Amino acid sequence: GAVVSQHPSWVICKSGTSVKIECRSLDFQATTMFWYRQFPKQSLMLMATSNEGSKATYEQGVEKDKFLINHASLTLSTLTVTSAHPEDSSFYICSAVQGALGNIQYFGAGTRLSVL
Amino acid sequence: AQKVTQVQTEISVVEKEDVTLDCVYETRDTTYYLFWYKQPPSGELVFLIRRNSFDEQNEISGRYSWNFQKSTSSFNFTITASQVVDSAVYFCAYSASKIIFGSGTRLSIRP
Fold first, then answer.
1. Per-residue DSSP letters for B76-99?
2. CA distances (Å), B70 to each of A102, A110, B3, B50, in order?
3. Is A107 in the B-facing interface, judged by CB distances under 8 Å?
4. Are B102 and B6 in contact (CB under 8 A)?
5. CA-CA distance, A47 to A58, in Å (whole number)?
6. Which whole number is the average pLDDT over B71-92?
7. Nearest CA to CA, how far is A3 from chain B (Å)?
8. pLDDT of res. A55
9. CA separation for the pair B87, B18 (Å, rounded)
10. What is the CA radius of gyration of chain A?
11. Rounded to 5°, angle at Cα B104 from B98 and B110
12. What is the DSSP letter of A59?
């Protein structure tokens, strides 16, 4: 299957700093990438849908100024958690799709963010 | 609105037992896709299967099999002769305009 690389896998930062998470599709061009947040023992919560060259579409309740998404190329999307606070601590997962939504989503390994 | 329900929050069985994970969905769409993903303790979601709404054929892949029944809006997943390595959280998902994940079933296989 296709490979999606997510980096870093784990980050610890101080409150008030910004953290950037990268999501790359390694062997295919991803027309669409998704960012999810997962709390312990819970399901994935879609945060935003990212299309190359256009603004991300955020889900209701997700602060776009807090979670900045940039999809600069067909193989790279970034999520920046700005001015992180302890409540932003979570597991963030990206996925990439080639083509229409019914196509398979390939997931990155996730990033565990801990804000002190 | 679309909805995916996985009623089994946790399942624990002894190795070599068969186990079925249930998934029920709600939709008014005529065209949609259904998925199963596995999330091992490492965290990365692994794709297992995709089915479109026009293909009700059951699928078997090794010890894994899937039963899709539109009449009952169900897409159940069975593991035959379970192994410890099957221990993970399994998510059923639906997509038409956007993907919706069920709440997941935590499967523990005891040696």
1. EEEESS--GGG-EEEEEEEESSSE
2. 17, 33, 14, 15
3. yes
4. yes
5. 6
6. 97
7. 11
8. 87
9. 13
10. 13
11. 150
12. P
Spatial contact of B10 and B108, defined as CB atoms under 8 Å apart: yes
Percent of residues, chain A, with pLDDT higher than 70: 96
Which residue would you say has higher pLDDT here, B38 or A32? B38
Average pLDDT of chain A, as a whole number: 91
Q: Establish if B47 touches chain A: CB-CB under 8 angstroms.
A: yes
Q: Is the pLDDT of residue B27 over 80?
A: yes
The amino acid at A21: I
CB A3 within 8 A of CB A26: yes
Interface test with A, best of B35, B45, B47, B101 (most A CBs within 10 A): B45
pLDDT at B33: 93
Q: Which of B45, B52, B101 sits opposite A102 (nearest CB)?
A: B52
